[in-house]
Amino acid sequence: MVDSTIFCLECGSDDVFHERGRVVVEIKGRRVTVEDDCHVRCRQCDSISYPGVMADEHMTAVSARLRQEDGLLSVAELKEIRLRYGLLQEEMEALIGSGPKTWVRWERGRITPSPAYDRAIRRIAEDPRFLRRLMLERGIDNPTAFGVIEDAFEREVRDVSREMSILVDGRDRNEVEAIVATALSRSDELRNDLFRVRKAEVDVESTIARAMTRIPVDVEGLARDLGMPVVRDPRMSRQSSGSIMREAIPSGASGYRITVNGSEAHNRQRFTIAHEIAHLLLHRNRIGDGITEQVLHRSFDSNDVIEREANSKAAEILMPESFVRDEFQRDRDPDSLARRFKVSSEAMGWRLYNLGLVHSKPRRQ
After folding, report:
1. Which of 186, 219, 249 is at the close of a domain?
2. Is there a contact between 215 and 340 (Cβ–Cβ < 8 Å)?
3. How many Å is the Cα radius of gyration of the chain?
């Protein structure tokens, strides 16, 4: 079909038509093949061009092909790594030393990171200790990222100490953990793949029970063990705390992904993760393609029955009853207990009230 509004950039003819098919282009001395390329072809000189949005689509397709051939991180992987820690695009640029707006263009797919940048980003993804050192060196103060890193350290200590406690007889478990923590703090080589999602079948009840044997509960580790990756979006609306969504291409055993508002306090993010886990456990048949949590729904005295049930289950996960009762005998200060369990003072106040340990409802914060 002739498009009278477009002219050939080579010969000026208006005898052009839209076409989709295989093209081979040369980029910096490399020949790159794009299989399903959308372009305009001239009948007079047989040249092809990319007017309007076609140019963006073409460059995105070429960039994706280059990433694939060179084994570089995809656009989706770059975004997932950044949101995993709740980092902003400009913070990622400062961490790896790239120019301004570089990360924006990478996530848009217009250009590709160099192999050197790709290696640096992969190390950030795999090694929270390396990320923490970079953040301190570059003066990046992101409480969400530091909270995720702290949780990763705690999870690492517990994983290794669990293995060591099997081998070490006659030692107190806390002593074993102290030894492991000291060793890990001195060696970057001793680390696990902290963000690997197990795609095997998950025993939900035993997985949750295992997570609730220690406080503070590693709720993000629990989500991953249940097959739900967690990402942080610092630009999520202030009216939303998080969401649970069905993944088009499942990356975990559950087929769902949890997103939390990366701008909220770390303890509030922890509760949001537990809240979304509760939705999967209690309301899987109602999730559909996803549930987005409005901030107002997160009140413990919410009128929404489903949200109230999810809040109650989240509180049970983060604040196991036996631990709460034991700790309450030693320390009756709700704020102190909240710090111990890594929850908000309001959440702890409601947990104490619902367990009958206090007689007044907490004030909403």
Report:
1. 186
2. yes
3. 25
The string of pLDDT tens digits covering residues 217-255 is 999 989 988 888 888 888 787 778 888 888 766 666 677
Nearest one of 284, 280, 148 to 218, comparing CA atoms: 148
Classify residue 296 by its DSSP letter. Answer: G
pTM for the model stands at 0.55
Q: Which residues contact 142 (CB under 8 A, 6 or more apart)?
A: 85, 86, 87, 88, 91, 135
Length of the chain: 365
Indicate if 218 and 315 belong to the same structural domain.
Answer: yes
Q: What is the dihedral of CA 305, 312, 265, 335, to 10 degrees?
A: 130
- Which of residues 106, 123, 138 is at a domain's end? 138
Beta carbons within 10 angstroms of residue 299's beta carbon: 15
Strands (DSSP E) contained in the chain are 16-27, 30-42, 48-49, 230-233, 240-246, 256-261, 290-294
Both 165 and 178 in one domain: the answer is yes
Task: Calculate the CA 77 to chain-centre distance.
Answer: 10
Torsions phi, psi of 327, nearest 5?
Answer: -65, -35
**Sequence-distant (≥ 6) Cβ neighbours of residue 327 within 8 angstroms:** 215, 337, 340, 341
Determine the structural domain holding residue 157 and report its residue range.
143-186
- C-alpha 133/C-alpha 129 separation (Å) is 6
201 plus 344 within the same structural domain: yes
Task: Determine the residue type at 272.
Answer: T
